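**User:**
Make up any protein.

**Assistant:**
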Amino acid sequence: MHFSKQSLLALILWLVSAAGMAQGDSILIGQSVPLSGSNRELGQEIRDGAMAYFTKLNDAGGLGGRRIELLTLDDGNDTKVAAENARKLIEERGVLALFGYASATLSRPAMPFAEKSRTPFLFPFTGADPMRIFNRVLFNHRASYADELEKIVNHYATVGVKSFGILFHDDVVGRENLSAVERALQKRNFKATATLGIKRSEPDIAGAVAMVTRTKPDVMITTTLFKPSADFIKGARAANPGMQFVSTSFAGPNVLMRALGRDGIGVTVAQVVPPVTNRNIPIVAEYMVAFEKLTGKKEFGATSLEAYIAAKITAEGIRRAGGARATRETLITALEGMRSYDTGGYSVGFSSENHNGSSFTEITVINKNLQFGY
């Protein structure tokens, strides 16, 4: 069969795109996060944290002389847009991997596109059970919500608390979080005093506050987005002096703290990365310098640190996969061979049977200076 030069070039370009190899002067990584709408602060923190590392790496020469380019599309926290963004990034832009989706709800509709094309789906910002099930293209570097909730319940159980309430989103992912709390409670022969399911859009916060005021658990565990979590905690705290509140990392620790303001003092938040205030931890010190250089700000937070770590692991995976010659398949294989990788005080490990890199969880409390105490 004879090919003209033009058709041969077109074929080569198509094969490169289909395999997700580095193109031109860049290694393309695709991302979809909410940069508009009510959850835009979380999306911006995720993007800025990742960009802080990729910019640092690119300024030092990139990988084999190639820059890592993060192509970020706004999904406005809309599941249909998140799915379409995945299609565009994979089929039209030929990205090497998808990276840093902001939740399980946004990740799940994007996953079929990653599976069909065997595109690595790296480090979504979620610990939800459905995203922890083994899938060859899916990698997580952070602890699961089940890990967090076990730590939370154990923390309070050790000081004699037995009465818990749970606020969750009344959908597939939210009910998985409810189940995770219930498992941790049942392990200790506890039962939830109140289980409050709310809609993701237009949640009935007043109704939830009224319900928890009637049932009066000692501790309310919130597993919801930052705004409904903050609105609920403000209302429930005013109606129930002395009630304690704890959130999973899902809300975005710094975003939640800002939304709560002074009402956040004493609220407990689970975190899945090292203390962001501790410069003695190498990865934290590295992140702080790079983040401030990128943004010109010192608004350091757990979410952007988590994204920075995710970007560093991604870059190391690409380096081990061949750098500029990396393909989607070699990246998956390289990550599976990353049995123990220390990012600088935070370690992950993957294998061909396990794509969940860490179970590290820390309990923190918002103090009177509106900072997290560890």
Confidence is low (pLDDT under 50) at residues 3-19.
